Amino acid sequence: MNTFPQRENALSFGAMSEPSPLAPIHVIGGGLAGSEAAWQIARQNVPVVLHEMRPSRKTPAHQTGDLAELVCSNSFRADDPQTSAIGLLHREMRCLDSLILAAADDHKLPAGGALAVDRGQFSAQVTEAVSGHALITVVREEIDGLPPKAWDNVIIASGPLTSASLGSALRTLTGERDLAFYDAIAPVVHRESIDMEKAWFQSRYDKAGPAGTGADYINCPLTQDQYFAFVDALVDADQAEPHPLAEEKTPYFNGCLPVEIMAERGRETLRHGPMKPFGLTNPHPGSAKPYAVVQLRQDNALGTLYNMVGFQTKLKHHAQVEIFRTIPGLENAAFARLGGIHRNTFLNSPKLLDGALRLRADPRLRFAGQITGCEGYVESAAIGLAAGRMAAAERTGEAFAPLPPTTALGALIAHITGGHIEIIDAGPPSFQPMNINFGLFPPIAGNLHGKKTALSRKAAIVLRAARDLDSWIGAHQTRAAE
What we know:
Helix content: 25-40%
CATH class of the largest domain: Alpha Beta
Strand content: 15-25%
Shape: globular
Low-confidence stretches: 1-16, 243-248, 423-428
Largest sheet: 6 strands, mixed
CATH topology of the largest domain: FAD/NAD(P)-binding domain
Strand order of the largest sheet: 6-2-1-7-17-16
Number of domains: 2
Radius of gyration: 23 Å
Distance between the termini: 33 Å
Number of strands: 17
């Protein structure tokens, strides 16, 4: 029985459990995007078959057979819609009946201004909700190659770890070779093994967020000498060999660089990145201001696990243990999971996809999630939400007006499907993965003056986005009632 609370929304019309005469929509991939897409389709009273190859066929990063498993961080990032683009996307997804955001809200953990979740409970709830829905059939199988021609409405949400056979078929169909980048996983530490006589609890600038108190991170301080010794050790450490399928010059995504790659870019790089000491005050008596700080964020509801924030790594396991235990407070760290690395692939979406996320070379195929070139948990789920609604509207013959590009979701879709400026040269396509950010939104008309111009511009963008999303929802509600 599906015990997931049903959340009514202006766009969620139609009975959820009545038999439907419509042919099913097929969704390939049970990650964040695929799970959200399947949920959105079913909420429109359209049957859906969700194909997920795990657990019979594993990936280099996943550990369970749960749907929507979080393989890297447990954070959905900033949750404030007034000051951050990702927070604005959170709010829009909540307004649009997002399964992923509902489950995240139900299992949030203290994380300052961020929305972090207990990853096990989160994935379990998504799995229960999807598997228990009367209009969703979950099939545990790998789709070997392109979907059968009889499937006339398909969403491919196979993620950045798309299987080799499907990836090869897509390359043949599109004529485009895959773009790829490495995505690394951060280590997770047992809380009881952290020395709190050296470390302390504090959020940066004491900021409290959803489920937070302003003291949500464990902070481990380093002196200048300790910091430089740490950086030197990272640069000299043994690194894991590249994935055998990876190309020689596969680029990294700048938003998820391995910590050792950041160290190679300059001795001060980490100190102005994940190890910045700003907004933190060591409360231990006699302690000097730290030169750098390593932060750890709660990873499960019990508070027994903490992940090392920004410490994605491709170091060999023995090197991780040796180097990370030189961090003050982590000398006796017990690791529940060490870092790892896997190869990610994505489409050159501005060239290959139309505005409805359909493949130009075969419009029956629609794409969602990280394979489209969006980056991040929330962004992937958001594109799954949009793709699911688009596919359902196509199946029922209803008009689906594009989401306004002035909204966070609309801006993200616009970037994926045409907002990127292609650089023409002899090298590979220049389209790269992108997190949602205010730079993707259309500019605000008129001039904003004064010392707080940036804040005023953000406020204007947020206000416009809320207004335009409300209008879009109202228009869909009116059409549904006609």
